[in-house]
Amino acid sequence: MDRPLAGPDARTSGRHGRHSRLFGIIATAIATLVAIVLIPTSTAAGSAAPSPMTAQQWHTSMARLATPAKGCYTASYPALTWQATGCTTAPAKPFVPKGADSAAGPHLPAVALAGAGANPSSGAAPYVVGNGIDFSAGVSGVLNGATGSFASVSGVTSETGGGVANSYSLQLNSAPFSSPVCAGHPGCQGWEQFIFSNPGSGPSSAFIQFWILNYAATCPAGWWTYSVHCYKNGSAVTVPSQPIANLSGLSLSGNVTSALDTVVMSTGGGTLSASTADSTLSLSAAWNAVEFMIGGNGGGSMATFNPGSTLTVRTVTHNGTTAAPTCLTQGYTGETNNLNLVGTPGYGVGASPSIQSVQSNILTSPPSCAAAHGTGDTHLETFGGTYYDFQAEGAFTLARSSAMTVQNNQVSGAPLGWPGAAVNSGVATQMGADKVAVCAARGLVVNGAPTSLGSGGTITLASGDRIVRNGSQYVVTDPQGDSMTATVNPGYVDVFVGLGSYPQPVTGLLANAPGTNDKLRTSTGAVLSIPVDFKTLYSVYGDSWRVPDSQSLVAVCGDKTQAADPAAPFWADQLPKDVQAKALEICQKDGVRDATLLEACTLDVGVLGEVGATEFIGEPAPVNVAFSEDTQDGRTAVGANTR
Questions:
Q1: Ramachandran assignment for 299, one of left (phi > 0), alpha (psi -120 to 50 degrees), beta (any other)
Q2: Any idea where the VWFD domain is (predicted)?
Q3: Residue ranges in 239-365 assigned as alpha helix (H)
Q4: Whole-number Å distance between alpha carbons of 484 and 157
Q5: Residue 45: φ, ψ to 5°
Q6: Measured by CB atoms within 10 angstroms of the end CB, which terminus of the chain is less buried, N or C?
Q7: How confident is the model at residue 26 (pLDDT cuts 50, 70, 90)?
C-alpha cells in the first residue's frame, strides 16, 4: 500500500464500431482497471493478495495526508480519508516561549556524574527538560512536516500538572524564524506550536498556536499580548481525553504548506483528528528545526511524573531527504517536565529520518549531541566511539570546534606509583573569550585567576557561560550547549566533552577524521586508518596535537610539563600479578565484559585504586579500537578468556 498504484494506459485506437462491441470494450477496460488498481505493479497475477495496511502504517499515511481545506477533520482506521467535523475553540492560555519568565534564560546545569552509574542522591542539579533544555532536530533546507511520538515508555504510572492528574500537553515546536509579519519590527521573529492540550478533566483538543516574538508594539487586531510578544490560536479539534497510561500510543504531527498549516493528533486507537489553519506566519518558507516534548498544560507549567519514569522520545523529520537530522541541544517552549535529559541521541535514516533521545528521573549520564572523554591513565574515546590508550606526557588539544577548545595536560603516573602510565593533571576550555581550567592540585582557575566555588555553587560569566560545581565535579557550559565536565580525583582529573550540536566540524585527540568513525586525523590533515601502531600513534598522530607553551590553556595549573612520548606501551599484564588479579576481579564484579574495557579497567584499578572502576560501570563497548592491548602484536587482552 505504500507504493503508487498503477493505472491503465489511457490511449485508445479509435471511436468507430458497433454499440455492442463498444460496450464490450468498455466492460473489458473497467475490469482491467479494477484488477490493476487492486494488484500492486510488483504483484504477479495469481499470487497471494496484498496484506491489509496495519494500524501503524495507516497512522503514518494519514499523518502526511493533506486535509481537503481549512477546517477540522477526523479519520478512522482503515479508511484513508478525512471526514469533516465541527471545530471548537482552543484554550485561551499561552503555551509560552522559553525564558519568558526568566531574565537569565535557559542554561544546562550539571548532573550527578559525567560517566555512567550516577548516584541521584549526590545532590547534583539535573538537566530538567523544558524551558530551552531539550534535544531538537535540525535539517538542511526546510521542513514540510514532523511527527513526535514515544518509542518506549518505562516505569510511568502517574503524571500530574498543577495537582491535576493527567494534565499535560504534547508540543511540536518550531525554532524562532524570520516571518513577514515582523516587517518593520527589528528583532522580531515568528514562532509556531502544534499542540495537543490534555487538561485532565473534560475534553482535550489539538490546535496551532502562533506567536510573534519580540514584537514590542501594540499587537495586531485579533492577537493577544504576552509581555513583548503576541499570540493567537487557530481553530481546535476535539480529541478524547488521554490518560498518561496511553502515552506510548500517542503521536503528534505538524504539516505546512504555503497556504495551510495542519496539526494531526493520533490517539493510537485507530482514530485521528486534524485542525487546519491559514499559514499565518509563513512557516513553510523557514522551518528548519523542531522540538517534540511533553510538558505542562500551558503557562510555563510542569508535567510531573512519578519516580522511576523514563521516556524515549522520537522526532521524525520530513524535508524530502533520507538523511538523519542534525542534533541541537536546545528547546523552544517554556513548559517543562520533571524528567532529566540524559545521554546522547540515536539517529535514524531512510524514509522516516529521526532523532531519538531519553528523558528520565533516573540519572545516568549528562546530555550532549555527541560526547567524548579522557579518563584514568589515560583512555580516550572519541565522539565517534573510537577507543584508544594514550600515555604521552605534555599538553594536547583534546577537541576544537568553532565555539570551544578543550586541552589537557598529561603527566607521568610515577607519583601514583606507576611511571609507565600517564594521567591528566589538569584540563581547560576556552568558550568564546572565557578560559576555565580545572587542576588536580590548584582547583578552579577562571580567566587566569584562582577561583573559589563551593559544592552546589554556580558562576555565571558575562558571556553567558556557566560553571557549576557538585562535589568534586565542575561543569562548564556555553549557551549553545557545549560542555566540559572535569572530575577531580586524588592526583588526576577525568574529563568529558559534550557538543551542543552534531554533526559539526571538530578536531583533536577526541575527534575522528571528518565523516568517519574508523579513522583518525593529525593536526596537519593526514588521515590514519585504525588500528594504528605504537610509533604512528605517538610520533605522528599524538605529537601533531601537542600544544606549544604559548598557546596552552592548562599552563595556569602550574604543573611542570614535560613533552615526552612513552618508550613502550604499558599494559595491565605488566602490573604485579597479585595487583592485576585483584583489579581484574573488581572490574568483573562491576560488570565490565568487553575485552578492551576490561583491560583498561584492570589497568586503572591497579594504578589508581578501586575508584578507577567507576567510569567503566555500564559503559557500552567501543565502536572500534585504535590502540589497546588487544590490538597489538596478536596479544590477548587481560581477562579476555572470561567473556
A1: left
A2: 370-558
A3: none
A4: 35
A5: -60, 140
A6: C
A7: very low
301 and 329 in contact (C-beta within 8 Å)? no
Q: How is residue 608 written as a grid cell?
A: 589508581
Phi, psi (rounded to 5 degrees) for 574? -95, -5
Chain centre distance of CA 443: 31
Set of cell numbers at residue 478: 556555553
How far is it, in rounded angstroms, from Cα 1 to Cα 104? 51
Angle at 152 between CA 149 and CA 154, to 5 degrees: 130
Query: DSSP 3-state helix, strand, coil percentages of the chain (rounded to 5)?
Result: 15, 35, 45
Enter the C-alpha cell of residue 275: 485542525
Q: Mapped to the 3 state alphabet, what secondary structure does 456-517 carry?
A: CCEEECCCCCEEEEECCEEEEECCCCCEEEEEEECCEEEEEEEECEECCCCECCCCCCCCCC
Amino acid type, 628: S
pLDDT tens digits for range 137-190: 999 999 999 999 999 999 999 999 999 999 999 999 999 999 999 999 999 999
Residue 317 grid cell: 523529520
Three cell numbers, residue 32 = 482491467
Kind of pairing between the strands at 302-305 and 519-521: unpaired
Strand-by-strand arrangement of the 473-477 sheet: 458-460, 466-470, 473-477, 483-489, 492-499, 370-375, 379-381, 386-389, 624-627
Nearest to 396 by CA among 374, 372, 368: 374
